[in-house]
Amino acid sequence: MKKLTLLTLFVAFTFAANAQKTPVKITKVEKKNAEISCGECMFKMEGKGCNLAVKIDGVGYFVDGRKIDDFGDAHAEDGFCNAVRKAVVSGEIVDGRFKATSMQLIESKKVKKPTHK
What we know:
elongated, alpha+beta, 5-stranded mixed β-barrel
């Protein structure tokens, strides 16, 4: 009987421990200078297709809340798949993704991708 009681308590404790959620790390970003471009094409991030990404303090994050074509055709000669731009961004970094609330381009001249020979 003692073994059955201990086993029942152990199983109940195991289920309770597994039900605990891991806290999500959220980092607020307020008016931070960043680079903005295509994550796959320009920042060499792993992904499928062309997706908007930012580099904040040298770390790349895919963007939620804005699309790559929100700033013009991404595949144009000066689009995000061919150029890296500077921007001031605000939002939150949640689970390795940037949740954008504001993205303001700060450079009028587009910087083209360097050519490799």
